[in-house]
Amino acid sequence: QLQLQESGPGLVKPSQTLSLTxxxxxxxxxxxxxxxxxxxxxPGKGLEWMGAISYAGGTYYSPSLKSRTSISRxxxxxxxxxxxxxxxxxxxxxxxxARDLVTGMDYWGQGTQVTVSS
Length: 118
Fold this sequence. Notes:
By secondary structure, the protein is mainly β. It is built from no helices and eleven strands. Strands 2, 4, 5, 6, 9, 10 and 11 form a seven-stranded mixed β-sheet that branches. Strands 1-3-8-7 form a four-stranded antiparallel β-sheet, with no helix packed on it.
């Protein structure tokens, strides 16, 4: 059974960098044709796709966040990481990691609340 778990600080100050890690168990992040995705949901709003890293290490970003986002991976730890730079209170959200098989996201982490506040 594949499991994903987000981890990282729950509170980040404005202008700082938000960094979250997703640890994957029960499967490898290098499995062919699997994409590993970050999604967020601000309070009272819908889900927003932020970006993904592929099984081969290629990265894809939402155009609206591309200038502030970096996704990387550590294959030795079976983890992938989100960095969101220069955060503002508008980046307050529940952040999720998920596996995307192109046909859809089939496994999700439980989500982690991140609040941007001084």
